[in-house]
Amino acid sequence: MTRFHPVRVMIAETDSGLFVRGGVALPAEPREESSPAMESERTLLSLALNDESSVRSALMGEAEPGAGSALDPRTQALVQLGVLVAIDAAPASYGWSVDAALAAGATVDEIVGTLLAVAPVAGIARVVAAAPALAGALGYDIESALERL
């Protein structure tokens, strides 16, 4: 089967079950002796090759937080929170993300630390815009805090 990558690079599946792209061969099925490092490499290469089933799995997520990921559920929830800040997500998204992080064992300090950690990459404008939504999701009364200033 021949597939095309979005940047129009041909990807071919050989008779031996390897996907080949630019001299890189990727086994179609994991080997029995696969290690976590080999699985990570396979996942990364499959996503880089725009493998339909890998992309679908990544987009659909897993049934349980942290399943199939080398990240523990707490870290995964904090990373997802950082991504929400980076993409300037809707305020309602922060409520879900904060609930997931707290349920996974994250502390309020770690949640705020995640906000600060993404500032150099996402930009201070995104962080400042996210702060009220995040504070609201944590149960802080922003209105009364502003009145006291």
What would you note in describing this structure?
- The protein has 149 residues and is α+β, with helices and mostly antiparallel strands.
- It has two domains: 59 residues, no CATH class; 76 residues, no CATH class.
- It is 57% helix and 10% strand.
- It contains seven helices and four strands.
- A four-stranded antiparallel beta sheet has the order 1-2-3-4, with helices on one face.
- A hairpin with a 4-residue loop joins strand 2 and strand 3.
- The termini are far apart.
- The relative contact order is 0.08.
- About 3% of the residues have low confidence.
Span from first to last CA? Answer: 65 Å
What percentage of amino acids are in beta strands? 5-15%
Mean pLDDT: 78
Shape: elongated
The number of strands is 4
Main beta-sheet strand count, sense and barrel state: 4 strands, antiparallel
Q: What value does the Rg take, in angstroms?
A: 20 Å
Could you give the order of the helices and strands? EEEEHHHHHHH
Q: Structural class from helices and strands?
A: alpha+beta
Kindly state the percentage of residues in helix.
Answer: 55-70%
Counted up, domains total 2
Across the major sheet, the strand order is 1-2-3-4
Q: What is the helix tally?
A: 7
Uncertain residue ranges: 63-67
Write the layout of secondary structure elements.
Layout: E1 2-4, E2 10-13, E3 18-21, E4 24-27, H1 36-48, H2 52-60, H3 73-86, H4 91-103, H5 108-122, H6 124-137, H7 142-148
Antiparallel strand pairs: 1-2, 2-3, 3-4
